[in-house]
Amino acid sequence: MVSDYSLSSLSQEILRLLNDSPLGLHRATMKNFVQEALEQGVVLPGVYWIQSALSRMAVDMQAYKRDPGTPVINYEANNADSQKWIIQAAGNGYTIKNFTTNTFLSLAEGVVPASYVPVTGNPTPVEWEIFRDGRYFIIRLASNKGLAMDLKYGGCKNSNPIILHDCHKEPTQQWILMPV
Q1: Cβ-contact 170, 48 below 8 angstroms
Q2: How far apart are CA 23 and CA 31, in angstroms?
Q3: pLDDT at 33
Q4: Fewer CB in 10 Å around end: N or C, the chain?
Q5: Closest CA relative to residue 49, chosen from 159, 167, 179
Q6: What is the distance between the alpha carbons of residues 92 and 86, in angstroms, rounded to a whole number?
Q7: Within 10 Å of residue 94's Cβ, how many Cβ atoms?
Q8: What is the pLDDT of residues 109-135, one digit of tens each?
Q9: Rounded-to-integer distance, Cα 50 and Cα 155, Å
Q10: Residues contacting 131, CB < 8 A, separation 6+
């Protein structure tokens, strides 16, 4: 499921946002349009920075590594390309691919999704559900809605791992999406 919209109602919502835009379609920039869609809880395909609402730090690939199983971490937002993520619609949600490494936000090969399993970069994508919950977004596994991306132990320091944890929607699981 892509957000809470079917594809036809998503298309209608996009058209409504374009038509209701105070700037009008001819003057709207794509970034402003995507931001307006996000404010409505609609995640459009594109390139984003993903930032923790708790730490205000960015989701990052550790040391720009491309190796399968490379940890995904929380790191000081510095506008590095390794902190940019390409979000694309997929069958039951979205795939999230790192702009620099071309690896997907995923789990290590053969790992069974469970609480405290690290989120890693891998060539094989998993699908994520991204939905708005109040001011922020929750990113949880599409195949197991009981597990969401979380800051391990609520850590707000550089290199703190991003893990899966039982989906409780508390601040450690709240994310800000910002179009690049």
Answers
A1: no
A2: 13
A3: 80
A4: N
A5: 179
A6: 17
A7: 23
A8: 888 999 999 999 999 999 999 999 999
A9: 16
A10: 3, 4, 41, 137, 138
Determine the Cα–Cα distance for residues 100 and 81; give it in Å rounded to an integer. Answer: 6
Q: Specify which residues 19 forms β-bridges with.
A: none
d(CA 94, CA 84): 15
Three-state DSSP at 144 gives coil
Counting Cβ atoms within 10 Å, is residue 50 exposed (0-12), middle (13-18) or buried (19+)? buried
Q: Strand, helix or coil at 19?
A: helix
Per DSSP, the three-state class of 134 is: coil
Could you read off the pLDDT of 10-42 as tens digits, one per residue? 555 655 655 565 554 444 567 788 888 899 999
Which segments of 68-138 does DSSP mark as H helices, in order?
Answer: none
Partners of 23 in the beta sheet?
none
Helix and strand numbers, DSSP H then E, in the chain: 2, 12
